[in-house]
Amino acid sequence: MKNKKRLVIISSLVIIIVVAFPFGFFYVLNNGNPLTKYIADKKVPAHLVEKGYTMDDLNESHFVEPKHTINRKFYHGHYLVVFNDEPDITYYYGITKIRHKVKQFCEKDKISSIGITDTIEDETKHSEKDCTNSR
User: Fold this and answer.
1) What separation in angstroms does the CA of 98 have from each of 50, 72, 74, 94, 114?
2) Which of 6, 56, 80, 84 is the most exposed place for a label (fewest CB within 10 A)?
3) How confident is the model at residue 128 (pLDDT cuts 50, 70, 90)?
4) What does the pLDDT read at residue 40?
5) How many whole angstroms separate alpha carbon 65 and alpha carbon 75?
6) Would you report the helix, strand and coil content of the chain in percent, each value rounded to 5?
7) Burial class for 28, CB neighbours closer than 10 Å (0-12, 13-18, 19+)
8) 63, 37 in Cβ contact below 8 A?
9) Within-domain flag for 27
């Protein structure tokens, strides 16, 4: 009787692991790490407020998962910010793995008048002096 009970418990655990692992893997692959998103959602808005911005200054701000590799000192997810007074430039912020510091990436996306997105590193109105490269 004990062996049968033990066999049922072990086989149930194996089935749960075999089923749950792929779901968890594909969730993180498609949506990013939820812990990284949580950290970015807390830290970046606080950083922007610290820099003197209000939520009224922002046209768009949210977590994004880039499709390319980034600087290894940073978590993979970025925080996208578009300011109201520069709607054609998208700024990206990252969170360092050590001490969870917020840094602006020097690379920004600029939408041209014909709708083509180009990556620029020029200094713009909302560029931070201590930005870092994302790659």
Assistant:
1) 20, 11, 8, 12, 40
2) 56
3) very high
4) 93
5) 10
6) 35, 30, 35
7) middle
8) yes
9) yes
Give the DSSP letter of residue 135: -
Domain-located, residue 133: no
What's the whole-number mean pLDDT along residues 98-122? 91
Cα separations in angstroms, 68 against 18, 71, 111, 129: 29, 10, 20, 24
* pLDDT recorded at residue 62: 94
Would residue 4 count as lying in a domain? yes
Q: Are residues 51 and 111 in the same domain?
A: yes
pLDDT tens, 21-31? Answer: 888 777 776 76
Range of the domain at 25: 1-31
Do residues 51 and 66 share a domain? yes
Same domain, 42 and 62: yes
- Between the two ends of the chain, the Cα-to-Cα distance in Å is 59
Q: Tell me: do 12 and 43 sit in the same domain.
A: no
Same domain for 5 and 19, yes or no, is yes
- Categorize the per-residue pLDDT at 1 as very low, low, confident or very high, splitting at 50, 70 and 90: low
User: Rounded CA gap, 92 and 13, in Å?
Assistant: 42
Q: Is residue 132 part of a domain?
A: no
